[in-house]
Amino acid sequence: MMRAEGVGLRLNGKEILHGVNCTVTPGQVTVVMGKNGAGKSTLLQIMAGQVFAGKGSAAGGAVAGAVWLDERAMQDIAPADLAGRRSVLAQSVQLGFPLPVAEVVELGCYGRYHQLTALQRKQAVDNYLDLLDLNPLRDRSFLTLSGGEQKRVLLAKCLLQLDAENPNLTTNRYLLLDEPTAALDLEQQYRFVDLATRLARERGLGVLAVLHDLNLAARFADHLLFLRDGKTVASGPPAEVLTKTIIQATFNVDCLIQPHPCFNCPLITTLPYGKPNIAPACAP
């Protein structure tokens, strides 16, 4: 289990996060939501070990709280070990060289490159290209791909870094996704989040995702964390926290909440910004 306890960050005199708790459980999907500037990406970076809690300061900011990875303090885990335990799909990645897609995916082997033969690396790359339907793009330059295609390539690299299909794994693995559906079309948004959810269920990955779509979160999340101004508004299962009151408190928008006609989850319809909050309470 990955746990953040009382995480806070003060930067240039401003509190970016304040006393936030977050848990990522193997086999489940935790989704963080909130307005722009709520602290979602900052929380993900701290939980990824990119900014260490409990070390006093980072990049001029004071960091509070603690992050635990399977009962070990995050800052006590060696970088090479940490790289094999969690991988991060950032909001954007800049690549300065026209590497082919297959070579970008192969970067996921970097931490154990010399432990694998060339054949093993190729087989691993082929496996994840197949998993994400990327084989037709394997020889294309990464720089020529659409934003959505690049996201899928980077997800394949992240999964290869964790080697989630390795039957000999004895420790938990965690996949952290920072706004993974940005730049994806509607079909790819659902395919992407559905794949992450299936990986969690079938291979025991703990998934932490920052999302903006309430209905994607309602459909796929096991646990939701709502942030506003760096503080927790609500945390819990979707059935408990997807309410008019919490959505209004988090996003300043009114909404209708109804049973989804196809799935066992709520369907949320947000109302135009600035309109009076007159929507009937179709759900608590």
From TrEMBL:
Question: Entry's InterPro entries?
Answer: AAA+_ATPase, ABC_transporter-like_ATP-bd, ABC_transporter-like_CS, P-loop_NTPase
Q: Keywords in alphabetical order, please.
A: ATP-binding, Nucleotide-binding, Translocase, Transport
Task: List the Pfam families.
Answer: ABC_tran (PF00005)
User: Boundaries of each ABC transporter domain copy?
Assistant: 2-254
Q: Does the keyword Cell cycle apply?
A: no
Q: Function of this protein?
A: Part of the ABC transporter complex HmuTUV involved in hemin import. Responsible for energy coupling to the transport system.
Which protein is depicted? Answer: Iron complex transport system ATP-binding protein
Q: Which organism is it from?
A: Neolewinella agarilytica
